[in-house]
Amino acid sequence: MKLDVAGVSDKGRKKDKNEDYYGVYTPQDTDIKLFKEGALLVVADGLGGHIAGNVASKLAVSMIKDILQESFPEENSDEIDKSAPSPEEFYFNLLREAFRKANESIYKTNKDLVKGARPMGTTALALILLPGKAYLANVGDSRAYHIRNGEILERTEDHSWVDEQVKLGLMSREDAQKDSRRHMLTRSIGTHSEIEVDVYKWFPVSGDILLLCTDGLVNMVSDDRILEIVNEGGTAQYIAQRLVDEANANGGKDNITVIVAIVDPNPLKQRLFKLKQWWDKRGYTILKILALLVYGFIAGSIGFFLRDFLKF
Fold first, then answer.
1. Helices (H), the chain
2. Of 14-18, 47-51, 117-121, 143-147, which range is least confident?
3. Which of 7, 102, 158, 232 is the most interior residue, by most CB within 10 Å?
4. Minimal CA–CA distance to 146: which of 199, 88, 91, 204?
């Protein structure tokens, strides 16, 4: 499995600092025991209005990253026994335990050090991407999308007050997107002694796109517009940057973080797109130089012939 993966984070246009944090970990650039091919993608959004949201998000990502040092026994290994968990159970348990440890650490820090202020906390969203499978865990309102052939196949559920109202039939999805209470979370890492973690298993195939983001994107850019930008194509880096730019163009009211992973990208399309990007950046300069060279050649030629003509 080949991957094109990239992440972009921006503080937005209204915030003084960026309290989002993310991690992209692959065997190519990180010492990993958990898998030989694939990636671990993590996004965390420190709670605004709370103390040290940036600390909470970094701590959550760091602790979730620790699962990379775990290892799943190979199928032909002597380590396997009948009591061993299935791959699904193993990865889900691994993610749940990582989230539990992050919650315990941040919650304890709040009890020991935070007095008279709103305790630090964060959302957390993690995805283990393996050939043919993706295991996800989520707490909060950061969101993951599974996109195939220009359509959203699946997405994670937000743990927010307005989403609870939508599930109960008390609010429409359109009203929820406009409601001022959409930032109120019903679950987060670090603010309570116990957490409930949602887990998902998706089945990506070649050409699929997995998108992870904080609410700074989804509150500024509709799902339909996200799909339009993704469907324009390009590298993971380009798509992630385009989405962040779109959120900022629409107001950028919050920090914005986006991770894009393209599964087995078409190499010809990727090369052609990179060539187009290169030309878009340098094409005008090249044409200008060529025009000057042509002008110089023509001027020189005219001067040469005029010199011979004037001799007569």
1. 53-65, 87-113, 161-167, 173-178, 215-218, 223-231, 236-249, 267-311
2. 47-51
3. 102
4. 204
